[in-house]
């Protein structure tokens, strides 16, 4: 067993809305070790971003965190920390890369300034050292002409290059935990693989741990050690990638696999989006939240919410898992 | 290049319109300078003789053309009353008015920026509501009323600052600033509120931006996020307003210079109005228009500083 970096226990995050409490994250637990990549996959609205912000403790004022929720980073309980203490961890111990690189960088500050400020702020580096380090980081993330780019503004860079800059910012203080929230969703298909390869390389080279969030099963394949599938704020299946692919238990996971675009597809083919819509998180239906959309759902599925069960390496939240007629 | 040309084109049109309207207004108004010069108990014939001598009997358009031609060649004419060169008279008093306006805007900004930030940081929070109430009270009072209250309180009651007077900078910085504080504050107390509200609205939306979320995720402090990350992108409307306010401020200084006995362009203008010295009036108004256009030209330059996107666009085309 490697060194545990992140331990999330029963994380529950809700938002106070006009219609009532919206349960965006509903009892998520997992642990992540150094050097490992955890993929978090789910449709849009399944709570992935709220989960990532819950871990970083960067929630808006309307958010309510459930009483039993615990996030432990490097042995420190984040729930017990003051805002000032958390601030010292953001950057040096945990960092995040956002989805949309076009809006994630400040339009009025140079690239160099946006990288070096974390160095001067957290590591108390001098201005010139910080600038030199910024150029070095830009080189490390594969930005061409880093010593020219360092003085440029975000609008002078392409989307892919901006995402490289965002990654440079995230790894600047050598954090132990890196959260990448759909880091390639807003990018051209051709650059997506480059950015994912870069993230993977950074995690391996710097021996970090990464949570890689995506709605695309195709992204996690071959890159993650373990994959957690999210639906309606819960983890509904979790397993190492190959196990998940070979022995898919949840019909929802199977549907996600079916929606991966294939190279053999004719261009612009419409994806097999999963039929139906995610449940209302303010007034969830009774029973399994996926039941209303599930081909295999039975009466029992609509009665009780299934708990995560299974083996030490593969868990699912389904009372009628696929490929397992004999097991149960 | 093209951009600059268009700007000058606009400036030219503005100046023609402003000078023409002023000229007409001043010349349509009843009572002319000839009466003033001839004295109270002069005969109609004497007044007519003065008109003849000064060319006041010629058609309005001809006199306008003459005067505007002079403006463009640097000859702003001479006062009918004391024969002082108009350009010279304005330039002598302008630094005083300029200092007053700069000081007023500086005080207004120094109040508006922190207050606007605090309001935007927690909209509808307690700080926001207190600031909103103060701003409302402050903007409800016209500057001359504020001036009278300030004089009463700080000059008469506390005796901290003089109620009237002006000292040139050669007397020392503090001696120069001291009598300027209350007049500048009177102007600023009206101007800061609208700057503050504009900044507040724009900053509330900037604080929702992804790059602010990223700054938080980088562990930056709230103060740094507000001052370094949010202020500049939130300042566009405020800067535009700063330029437009110059017009109101020019009007404000006329009254305030009068109340506080400050020898600025406003006083020159008021005096010229009393004496029907219309060439001075025309000169002052033209000068105000020029000042306004110049201020807004500076605002355009400030945009480039605020927003690198404008800057590089300029560099490419
Ligand atoms: N600040 C917020 N206030 C209210 N509801 C929110 C807020 N942020 C997210 N939500 C809701 O939480 C749910 C999960 O959102 P999110 O985590 O962004 O999904 P995704 O998996 O696409 O990242 C959605 O239903 C969304 O509408
Ligand atoms: Mg998301």
Automatic annotation (TrEMBL), chain A:
This is ABC transporter ATP-binding protein. GO terms for cellular component: plasma membrane. It is a peripheral membrane protein. Belongs to the ABC transporter superfamily. Its main location: membrane. CDD domains: ABC_NikE_OppD_transporters (cd03257). InterPro entries: AAA+_ATPase, ABC_Ni/Peptide_Import, ABC_transporter-like_ATP-bd, ABC_transporter-like_CS, Oligopep_ABC_C, P-loop_NTPase. It comes from Pseudooceanicola nanhaiensis. Keywords: ATP-binding, Cell membrane, Membrane, Nucleotide-binding, Transport. PANTHER family: DIPEPTIDE TRANSPORT ATP-BINDING PROTEIN DPPD, OLIGOPEPTIDE TRANSPORT ATP-BINDING PROTEIN APPD. Residues 6-257 form the ABC transporter domain. It is found in: Cell inner membrane.
UniProtKB/TrEMBL annotation, chain B:
It is a multi-pass membrane protein. Residues 94-303 form the ABC transmembrane type-1 domain. The keyword Transmembrane helix applies. It holds the Pfam family BPD_transp_1. The chain crosses the membrane at residues 12-30, 100-121, 133-160, 180-199, 239-260, 280-306. It comes from the Bacteria. One of its GO terms (molecular function) is dipeptide transmembrane transporter activity. It is found in: Cell membrane. Keywords: Cell membrane, Membrane, Transmembrane, Transmembrane helix, Transport. The keyword Cell membrane applies. CDD domains: TM_PBP2 (cd06261). Its main location: membrane. InterPro entries: BPD_transp_1_N, MetI-like, MetI-like_sf. One of its GO terms (cellular component) is plasma membrane. Gene3D superfamilies: MetI-like. Belongs to the binding-protein-dependent transport system permease family. PANTHER family: DIPEPTIDE TRANSPORT SYSTEM PERMEASE PROTEIN DPPB-RELATED (PTHR43163:SF6). This is Peptide ABC transporter.
């Amino acid at each position: 067993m490697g060194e545990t970096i992140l331990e999330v226990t029963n994380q529950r995050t809700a938002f106070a809305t006009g219609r009532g409490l919206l349960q965006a994250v509903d009892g998520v637990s997992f642990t992540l070790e150094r050097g490992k990549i955890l993929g978090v996959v789910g449709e849009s609205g399944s709570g992935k971003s709220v989960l990532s912000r819950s871990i970083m403790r960067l929630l808006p004022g309307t958010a309510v965190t459930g009483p039993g929720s615990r996030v432990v980073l490097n042995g420190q309980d984040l729930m017990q920390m003051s805002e000032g203490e958390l601030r010292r961890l953001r950057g040096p111990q945990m960092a995040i890369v956002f989805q949309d690189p076009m809006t994630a960088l400040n339009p009025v500050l140079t690239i160099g300034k946006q990288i070096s400020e974390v160095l001067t702020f957290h590591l108390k580096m001098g201005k010139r050292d910080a600038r030199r380090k910024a150029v070095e980081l830009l080189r490390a993330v594969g930005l061409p002409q880093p010593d020219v780019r360092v003085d440029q503004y975000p609008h002078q860079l392409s989307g892919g290059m901006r995402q490289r800059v965002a990654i440079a910012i995230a790894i600047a203080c050598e954090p132990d935990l890196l959260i990448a929230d759909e880091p390639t969703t807003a990018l051209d298909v051709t650059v997506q693989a480059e950015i994912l390869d870069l993230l993977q390389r950074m995690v391996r080279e710097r021996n970090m741990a990464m949570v890689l969030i995506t709605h695309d099963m195709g992204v996690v394949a071959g890159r993650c050690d373990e994959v957690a599938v999210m639906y309606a704020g819960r983890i509904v299946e979790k397993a190492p990638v190959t196990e998940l692919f070979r022995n898919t238990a949840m019909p929802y996971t199977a549907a996600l696999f079916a929606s991966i675009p294939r190279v053999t597809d004719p261009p612009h083919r419409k994806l097999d989006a999963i039929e139906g819509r995610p449940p209302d998180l303010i007034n969830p239906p009774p029973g399994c939240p996926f039941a209303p959309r599930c081909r295999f759902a039975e009466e029992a599925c609509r009665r009780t919410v299934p708990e995560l069960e299974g083996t030490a390496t593969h868990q699912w939240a389904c009372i009628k898992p696929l490929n397992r007629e004999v097991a149960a | 290049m093209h951009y600059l040309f268009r700007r000058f084109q606009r400036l030219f049109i503005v100046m023609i319109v402003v000078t023409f309207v002023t000229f007409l207004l001043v010349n349509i108004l009843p009572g002319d300078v000839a009466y003033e010069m001839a004295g109270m108990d002069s005969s109609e014939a004497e007044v007519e003789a003065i008109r003849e001598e000064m060319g006041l009997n010629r058609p309005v358009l001809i006199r306008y053309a003459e005067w505007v031609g002079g403006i463009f060649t640097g000859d702003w004419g001479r006062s009918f009353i004391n024969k002082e060169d108009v350009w010279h008279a304005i330039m002598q008093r302008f630094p005083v008015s300029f200092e007053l306006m700069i000081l007023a805007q500086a005080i207004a900004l120094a109040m508006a920026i922190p207050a606007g930030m605090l309001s935007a940081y927690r909209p509808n929070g307690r700080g926001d509501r207190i600031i909103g109430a103060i701003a409302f009270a402050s903007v409800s009072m016209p500057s001359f009323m504020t001036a009278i209250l300030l004089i009463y309180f700080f000059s008469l009651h506390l005796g901290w600052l003089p109620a009237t007077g002006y000292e040139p900078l050669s007397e020392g910085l503090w001696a120069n600033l001291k009598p300027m504080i209350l007049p500048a504050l009177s102007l600023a107390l009206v101007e800061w509120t609208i700057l503050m509200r504009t900044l507040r609205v724009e900053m509330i939306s900037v604080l929702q931006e992804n790059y602010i979320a990223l700054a938080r995720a980088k562990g930056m402090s709230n103060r740094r996020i507000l001052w370094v990350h949010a202020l500049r992108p939130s300042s566009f409307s405020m800067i535009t307003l700063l330029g437009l306010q110059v017009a109101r401020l020019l009007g404000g200084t006329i009254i305030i210079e009068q109340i506080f006995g400050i020898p600025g362009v406003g006083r020159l203008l008021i005096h010229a109005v009393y004496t029907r010295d219309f060439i001075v009036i025309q000169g002052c108004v033209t000068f105000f228009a020029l000042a306004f256009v110049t201020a807004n030209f500076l605002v355009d330059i400030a945009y480039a500083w605020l927003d690198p996107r404008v800057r590089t666009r300029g560099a490419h085309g």
